[in-house]
Design a protein that fits this description.
Two copies of one chain form a homodimer. The first copy, chain A, is built from five helices and three strands; from the N terminus they run H-H-E-H-H-E-E-H. With 115 residues, chain A is α+β, with helices and mostly antiparallel strands. The first copy, chain A, has a domain of 72 residues: Winged helix-like DNA-binding domain superfamily/Winged helix DNA-binding domain (Arc Repressor Mutant, subunit A, Orthogonal Bundle), CATH 1.10.10.10. In chain A, strand 2 and strand 3 form a beta hairpin. Chain A is elongated, with a radius of gyration of 22 Å. The N and C termini of chain A lie far apart (62 Å). At the A-B interface, helix 1, helix 2 and helix 5 of A face helix 1, helix 2 and helix 5 of B. Chain A binds a DNA duplex (30 and 30 nucleotides) through helix 4.
Chain lengths: 115, 115
Amino acid sequence: MTNYSESLDSLFQALADPTRRTVIERLSLGPASVSELAEPFDMALPSFLQHLKVLEQCGLVTSQKVGRVRTYQLVPEALNLMRHWLQNQQTVWTRRLDQLDSYLLELAKQEKQNE
Amino acid sequence: MTNYSESLDSLFQALADPTRRTVIERLSLGPASVSELAEPFDMALPSFLQHLKVLEQCGLVTSQKVGRVRTYQLVPEALNLMRHWLQNQQTVWTRRLDQLDSYLLELAKQEKQNE
DNA sequence: ACAATACTTAGGCATTGACCTAAGTATTGA
DNA sequence: TCAATACTTAGGTCAATGCCTAAGTATTGT
């Protein structure tokens, strides 16, 4: 398996582009071929293909080719790494802020006693 | 307020860099000055400052300068947009996969009846 | 067989991103 | 006051990204 940090790099990078996020959203509805995916975008096909390549390389989607048609689909577990990092961050922040809160509360209480 | 999609762009983009993610992790522990944040990195200060600028521009952190020291801190709510997008995606995927599951289950049941 | 379809590869060009050094500016401690 | 400290600005290089056109290759319908 690749480095944890590098995986996060490429996942965040992949989703930093609106075209690629839209592709992901479209694939939520089910698998689709290259041309189906490309259709809504006003972009040359080779340019669009690069986006699909980015999504596939970071593991968010997979594809197989049958005949002359390549079909893409989501890899549902692929978001987990990012979700966990975000979840983790927010947990830590919140805990720290809670501690700060109770500290300030405690401080206020003591000040009151000293009145 | 800025566009929803553009905000996601800049948030994902900001977190696509390991240096910037490490800064965020460090700031989870509490506010810190530029030089405190820069210290672990083997990087010229101006280069590092650019990272801080990116984090501030996308709203993940804020800073104030007192005397000659600039102090950075997290903006706890800043991750929400991303978390919601991810949450949403995963919800949709999962629901679709569940439906597929029950469809396949149903199919199998009917095949069994036709035996 | 051969034209149409569905990608694929190759190569080019402009912008952005991540780094650097060098030279500022603004505070602060001695 | 003047040197040290803590950034800040300016500008320059190099690689990666996002787009393009032109020219492939492999399948499939007629």
